[in-house]
Amino acid sequence: MESVKDLLVEIKEKSELIVDLAYSALIFDSEDMAKEVESLEREMDDLVYKIRIKTMLAANNIEEAEQLSGILQVADAAKNIANAATDIVYLLDVDITMRPFLPSIFSKADEKLHVVMVSDRSSIVNRTIGDLNIEAETGVRVIAIKRGKRWIYDPDGDVRIKAGDVLIIRGTEDGYQFMERVARGEESWD
Amino acid sequence: MESVKDLLVEIKEKSELIVDLAYSALIFDSEDMAKEVESLEREMDDLVYKIRIKTMLAANNIEEAEQLSGILQVADAAKNIANAATDIVYLLDVDITMRPFLPSIFSKADEKLHVVMVSDRSSIVNRTIGDLNIEAETGVRVIAIKRGKRWIYDPDGDVRIKAGDVLIIRGTEDGYQFMERVARGEESWD
């Protein structure tokens, strides 16, 4: 059962992340983010396939099969959430005439989503997200980092912040204002 | 266009909230929360119907219709997200044998979701969420309040906290620890 649990937790977390990222892709009009959403959806398909196999192998009798069917129902729902989120980013594959208002509609609505650029003068350069303990210290969560042409989504604690990083953060207005000053090197982290 | 915008923002926000609530209903094994998810899904259906009518009336030529079609695509995707989220809570309508592991699997995984009971000795009793500025001050967000048999979801700033309220909060561990002490009356808010 252990790995069925791990798979289900991963499926749940990816289904939440993909909704966040899909709207973010639209708000930032970012084809790179859209590609990551599509790649997350493929990972979800793999995970759901794996959990189906594992649950079938785990069920030895009708009672166990009934218990495990609930897990499959959640997994399928999470997969459908991911599919629907991906429909949002397909808009970015088509002509821009279909989405002229969308970034401005949503960016005004979602006041908790911000973009912060890390200057080489910032005191957070070369420190890890976990070491800084950003979420606990500031109330904002780093949902993605754009580094050159590459994106790092839902970064782990061991990811080290570099000069030039673009951080996509979600959180309180105060937390954002602080992160903005720190990232510009106008205020020290400590 | 103004009301199409407002409708779309409401649709986006409800689609994010419903995913959060659906998993929460499972974690807390709460039929009340499940009923609210189902009611949110019906509200989504109404909103999507309204936005279809509004966009059709707003389009005067093929160019405008193309621009508006992107809005319908996002609204449909949000509706599908809500439908999928509702599939998760249908598990709560059926026999408990289908979901014996689920609350424990997810509650261990989602360390950011907590339940806090407000004692009549707490200094936050009779103060509003907006006045306390809970999210900015503590880094935790109140996602729902259970008051007697009633649930208040995604409470606005003018909601006043009462003795006996059960707060469902999401946020940092430090923020949760603080809220827990304050709710028990062991520490003063100010």
Structure in words:
2 copies of one chain form a homodimer. The first copy, chain A, has 190 residues and is of the alpha+beta class. Chain A has 2 domains: 2-98, Phosphate transport system protein phou homolog 2, domain 2 (Methane Monooxygenase Hydroxylase, Chain G, domain 1); 111-184, Alpha-Beta Plaits. In chain A, 59% of the residues lie in helices and 12% in strands. Chain A is built from 7 helices and 4 strands; from the N terminus they run H-H-H-H-E-H-H-E-E-E-H. The first copy, chain A, has helices at residues 2-27, 31-58, 62-90, 102-109, 129-132, 134-138, 173-184, and strands at 113-117, 140-147, 150-153, 166-171. The first copy, chain A, has a 4-stranded antiparallel beta sheet with strand order 1-4-2-3, sandwiched between helices. In chain A, strand 2 and strand 3 form a beta hairpin. In chain A, helix 1 runs antiparallel to helix 2, helix 1 (2-27) runs parallel beside helix 3 (62-90) and helix 2 (31-58) packs antiparallel against helix 3 (62-90). Chains A and B meet through helix 1, helix 3, helix 4, helix 6 and helix 7 of A and helix 1, helix 3, helix 4, helix 6 and helix 7 of B.
